[in-house]
Amino acid sequence: MRLSSYTADRFLLLLLSLTLVLPFFNFARYSPAPDWWTNSVVVMLLVPVLLLALWRDVAADESYSIAVPRLLPLAGLWWCFVFLPVALRRDGGIYSLALSESLAVLLALVAASLLFQLQNRLGRPQLLITLAAVMLGGGLLQALIGIAQLLQVAPLADGWLVYHQPVPFIMGNVAQRNQFAHVLTWGVLAAVYLWLGQHLRSWLAWPAIGLLALVMAWSGGRLPLAYAGAMLLVAVAWYWRSRDRRLFWGLLSAALLILLMQWGGGWLAKVLTGQSIGSGWDRLGDAGFGARRRIEWQKAWLMISAYPWFGVGLGDYAYHSTWLEAFGGLPKLPESALFTHSHNLIMQLLAETGIPATLLAAGTVSLCLLPFLQKQHANRENAFLLLLAATILGHSMFEYPLWYLPFLLAFLFVLALSPLPPVTVAVRASLRRLGLSVLLLGCLLYLIFGIPGFFTVIKVQQPSRNPAENQQRIEDLLRLSRNPFWAYEAELTLANYLRPSPQDLEIKLQHYEQLARYRPYPMLLCHLAMLRAWHQQPQAAREAMIMAIAAYPEALPVMLQTLTVRSESEIAPLKQLVLQAQQAYRQGGGLAAVQSVASRSLGRPLP
Question: Residue 572's domain spans which residues?
Answer without folding.
Answer: 467-595
